[in-house]
Amino acid sequence: MSLTDGVKCDNCARHCPTGAIQMIVAEPEKETSPQIPAINTERCIGCGACENLCPARPFSAIYVEGHERHRII
Length: 73
Known about the structure:
The chain has 73 residues and is of the alpha+beta class. The chain has one domain (11-71): Alpha-Beta Plaits (2-Layer Sandwich), CATH 3.30.70.20. It has 3 helices and 2 strands; from the N terminus they run H-E-E-H-H. A two-stranded antiparallel sheet has the order 1-2. The relative contact order is 0.28. Keywords: Iron, Iron-sulfur, Metal-binding. One of its GO terms (molecular function) is iron-sulfur cluster binding. Pfam families: Fer4_7. This is 4Fe-4S binding domain protein.
Protein backbone atom coordinates (compact mmCIF):
# COMPACT_ATOMS: atom_id res chain seq x y z
CA MET A 1 0.00 0.00 0.00
CA SER A 2 1.59 3.22 -1.01
CA LEU A 3 1.53 6.24 1.26
CA THR A 4 0.10 8.45 -1.46
CA ASP A 5 -3.38 7.08 -2.03
CA GLY A 6 -3.98 3.90 -0.02
CA VAL A 7 -3.85 1.49 -2.97
CA LYS A 8 -2.46 -1.88 -1.86
CA CYS A 9 0.18 -2.72 -4.42
CA ASP A 10 3.60 -4.23 -5.00
CA ASN A 11 3.89 -3.62 -8.74
CA CYS A 12 7.31 -2.05 -8.39
CA ALA A 13 8.77 -4.94 -6.39
CA ARG A 14 7.26 -7.58 -8.70
CA HIS A 15 8.48 -5.93 -11.91
CA CYS A 16 11.95 -4.74 -10.90
CA PRO A 17 14.35 -6.49 -13.32
CA THR A 18 17.09 -6.71 -10.68
CA GLY A 19 14.99 -7.42 -7.58
CA ALA A 20 16.17 -4.17 -6.00
CA ILE A 21 12.83 -3.34 -4.36
CA GLN A 22 11.43 -4.82 -1.18
CA MET A 23 8.13 -3.82 0.41
CA ILE A 24 8.60 -2.86 4.06
CA VAL A 25 6.20 -1.72 6.79
CA ALA A 26 6.23 2.08 6.98
CA GLU A 27 5.61 2.26 10.74
CA PRO A 28 6.32 -1.11 12.43
CA GLU A 29 4.82 0.02 15.74
CA LYS A 30 1.38 0.44 14.10
CA GLU A 31 -0.53 -2.75 13.31
CA THR A 32 -2.30 -1.23 10.30
CA SER A 33 0.76 0.50 8.87
CA PRO A 34 0.99 0.44 5.06
CA GLN A 35 3.88 -1.13 3.21
CA ILE A 36 6.19 1.10 1.21
CA PRO A 37 8.91 0.35 -1.33
CA ALA A 38 12.52 0.25 -0.09
CA ILE A 39 15.24 0.32 -2.72
CA ASN A 40 18.54 -1.51 -2.53
CA THR A 41 20.75 1.09 -4.22
CA GLU A 42 23.46 -1.50 -4.86
CA ARG A 43 21.11 -3.52 -7.07
CA CYS A 44 19.09 -0.70 -8.67
CA ILE A 45 20.08 0.06 -12.27
CA GLY A 46 17.95 3.22 -12.48
CA CYS A 47 15.74 1.98 -15.32
CA GLY A 48 12.55 3.60 -13.95
CA ALA A 49 10.29 0.59 -14.61
CA CYS A 50 9.03 0.73 -11.01
CA GLU A 51 8.05 4.38 -11.24
CA ASN A 52 6.25 3.91 -14.56
CA LEU A 53 4.23 0.96 -13.23
CA CYS A 54 3.16 2.65 -9.99
CA PRO A 55 -0.63 3.16 -9.92
CA ALA A 56 -0.50 5.80 -7.14
CA ARG A 57 -1.70 9.17 -8.37
CA PRO A 58 -1.11 12.05 -8.61
CA PHE A 59 2.39 11.20 -7.37
CA SER A 60 4.17 7.88 -7.69
CA ALA A 61 4.97 6.07 -4.43
CA ILE A 62 8.46 5.54 -5.82
CA TYR A 63 10.78 7.93 -7.65
CA VAL A 64 13.86 7.02 -9.66
CA GLU A 65 16.39 9.67 -10.52
CA GLY A 66 18.28 7.27 -12.77
CA HIS A 67 21.95 7.00 -13.49
CA GLU A 68 23.90 9.49 -15.58
CA ARG A 69 24.77 6.86 -18.18
CA HIS A 70 21.05 6.25 -18.83
CA ARG A 71 20.42 9.95 -19.55
CA ILE A 72 23.07 10.27 -22.24
CA ILE A 73 21.81 9.65 -25.78
